[in-house]
Design goal:
This protein folds into 4 domains: 3-134, Response regulator (Rossmann fold); 153-302, Rossmann fold (3-Layer(aba) Sandwich); 306-387, Helicase, Ruva Protein, domain 3 (Orthogonal Bundle), CATH 1.10.8; 403-453, Arc Repressor Mutant, subunit A. The chain is built from 19 helices and 14 strands. It has helices at 11-23, 34-43, 60-68, 85-93, 106-116, 140-152, 169-178, 197-205, 222-225, 241-253, 279-284, 290-296, 313-327, 338-346, 352-367, 373-384, 406-420, 425-432, 436-445; strands at residues 3-7, 27-31, 48-52, 75-80, 98-101, 159-162, 187-191, 206-207, 219-220, 230-234, 255-256, 265-266, 270-275, 300-302. The strands form 4 sheets. A 5-stranded parallel β-sheet has the order 2-1-3-4-5, with helices on both faces. It has a 5-stranded parallel β-sheet with strand order 7-10-13-6-14. Strand 11 and strand 12 form a beta hairpin. The chain is flat and about 70 Å long.
């Protein structure tokens, strides 16, 4: 029978965790703070400590440090509702066995404790200060991503970051660089999809004076500028097959030959690549080299889309609100109301975090607050209709009779769905892919008569 100490200032979480672990066959002691936990460790031989990070009177990381200094210390599993990449990295560096994001299933806690009880030496390292926060989010998917970043950052291997556009892939790359031994070196970012293939070689490898027309002076490429640091290649799936060969050659031998140069030089560069494309499908279609893929994907990290971590929307909205307030030189702007958060949570966010930031900025500019749900909905509608689409619409002398405003089109569609469901708003909301309370607000705004509930 193993002994587990559960530490949390929230009595409900502490007791439910203790009951589940006791039911799983463990002897369990409870503590409401770090000092009480250390006293229990003096009184009882303990195998595992499960501790919250943020507690009054001493946080979980301080407790972790104190435990690490003990002879034959128990393994520690940290848990928090405010996860971040820096706390994850600190937990790992300080010797934590694992890291759990609240809320979690009790079955998951039991499984993590079982893993901690298995033989094997826990990882330990010197406690180091955290890097500035770059990524916002405490959803369990984000915590798993933080763990992956903390695992791979110290290793001298290339990393491939996978994720949809706007999900924050460059922030992940920057975090890997910040937590790596190369943090003191340069971080150079190149968007491969934004540079024509004819210029990409010059951008990466550089060129000598006279190497081509208009090459009036020597140019150091990104690989040379990133020597001793990290090169981030965004949208790597967009590079041409011919350039894939040149990049593969560098990844194999680390040698840079500028355009027009007779001599080459070595560059000590860690390459982190990212793409929103399915590279394995491109390989099957002979559009991406398989050997290059394996060179780039020494380790893969998936960035979750915003629609799969909607519980982070309030955190992100608040963060962007502060940023916009600073941009507009305003000391304070009214924070998100529950109505606005409902509107934001009901949206699918095809543009991910980048789209959310733009919606927050547009809403604040239009209303100088984040309290008006209608303003937030209008900002979302504005984002959903890109301006470039208007260029594809043929101009006519007179508009067709069936062309209506977005509000009228939305009104007609909602009425049609309500008619199909015999006025049942719950079923209609399910078909529309929104919450029932969101549908109710839309019906009120668009003056649609209420039907059955």
């Amino acid at each position: 029978m193993a002994t587990v100490v559960v530490v949390d200032d929230d009595a409900g979480i502490r007791e439910s965790a203790a009951m589940a672990l006791a039911k799983a066959g463990h002897r369990v002691h409870q503590a409401s703070d770090a000092a009480s936990a250390l006293q229990l460790l003096k009184e009882h031989r303990t195998d595992v400590v499960v501790s919250d990070i943020y507690m009054p009177g001493g946080d979980g990381l301080s407790l972790l440090q104190a435990i690490a200094e003990r002879k034959d210390p128990p393994r520690v599993i940290l848990m928090t509702a405010r996860g971040s990449i820096e706390t994850t990295a600190l937990a790992r560096r300080s010797g934590a066995f694992d890291y759990l994001a609240k809320p979690f299933d009790l079955s998951e806690l039991i499984a993590r404790v079982a893993s901690a009880l298995k033989k094997g030496e826990p990882e330990t390292a010197k406690f180091e200060p955290a890097v500035p926060s770059r990524i916002i989010g405490s959803h369990p998917l984000m915590i798993e991503m933080y763990k992956a970043i903390a695992r791979v950052a110290p290793l001298p291997i290339p990393v491939l970051i996978l994720g949809e556009s706007g999900s924050g892939k460059e922030l992940v790359a920057e975090s890997i660089h910040d937590l790596s031994p190369r943090a003191g070196g340069p971080f150079i970012a190149i968007n491969c999809g934004a540079i024509p293939d004819t210029l990409l070689e010059n951008e990466l490898f550089g060129s000598t004076r006279g190497a081509f027309t208009d090459a009036r002076q020597e140019r150091r490429g990104a690989l040379s500028r990133a020597d001793g640091g990290t090169l981030f290649l965004d949208e790597i799936g967009d590079i041409s097959p011919s350039f894939q060969v040149k990049l593969l050659r560098f990844l194999q031998d680390g040698v840079v030959t500028p355009l027009g140069a007779d001599k080459s030089h070595r560059a000590d560069v860690r390459v982190i690549a990212a793409t929103h494309r399915d590279l394995k499908s491109l390989i099957v279609g002979a559009k991406f080299r398989e050997d290059l893929y394996y060179r780039l994907a020494g380790y893969e990290i998936a960035v979750p889309p915003l629609r799969k971590r909607q519980s982070d929307i309030p955190l992100l909205a608040g963060f962007f609100l502060q940023r916009v307030a600073k941009e507009l030189a305003r000391e304070s702007i009214a924070g998100p109301s529950q109505g606005v958060l409902d509107v934001l949570s009901a949206h699918a966010w095809p543009g991910n975090v980048r789209e959310l930031e733009q919606v927050v900025r547009r809403t604040v500019i239009d209303s100088y607050s984040l309290t008006d749900p209608e303003a937030a909905a209008a900002a979302i509608r504005g984002i959903e209709v890109p301006k470039e689409r208007t260029e594809e619409i043929e101009e006519e002398d007179e508009p067709a009779d069936d062309l209506v405003s977005l509000d009228e089109a939305e009104r007609r569609h909602i009425i049609a769905v309500l008619q199909a469901t015999a006025g049942n708003q719950t079923q209609a909301a399910f078909i529309l892919g929104i919450e029932r309370k969101t549908l109710a607000r839309k019906m009120k705004r668009l003056a649609i008569p209420a039907g059955k509930n």
